[in-house]
Amino acid sequence: MLTKSSKYAVRAISYLVVNSSENQKILVKDISNDLQLPKPFLSKILQRLSAKDYISSSKGRGGGFYVTEDQLDHSILDIIIEVEGKDRLKRCALDFDNCDEAHPCVIHHMIASEKGGLWKAYKEIKLKDLKS
Prior knowledge:
Blueprint: H1 4-19, H2 28-35, H3 39-51, E1 56-58, E2 64-66, H4 76-84, H5 108-124
Antiparallel strand pairs: 1-2
Helix pairs in contact: 1-3, 1-4, 2-3
């Protein structure tokens, strides 16, 4: 259900949560190499998340990406919605625009509770939980 962008974002942020700090910034090329993700695509994702203050970055010698203590309170769902531009977990699994409770698609009622459970789990998982 998640796009490649969201998966890359969550993987990269998980990496940053575990490996970075304000004193230990990580270059996008190192994240890309360690996680085997395409550097240009990952760079765009991380820049977008940094611009929206989900992660931090600094330029120049000793620069890179990192996560501050305050940013650890964001949820995985916050990251997914930022990267997707919308809440894909609330969209129809078959991508019908008019699918809802009043006009359900053929599988709407079969997966609604599972989608709701996944949405709730992503909302409850905070970045700080990824440190464990």
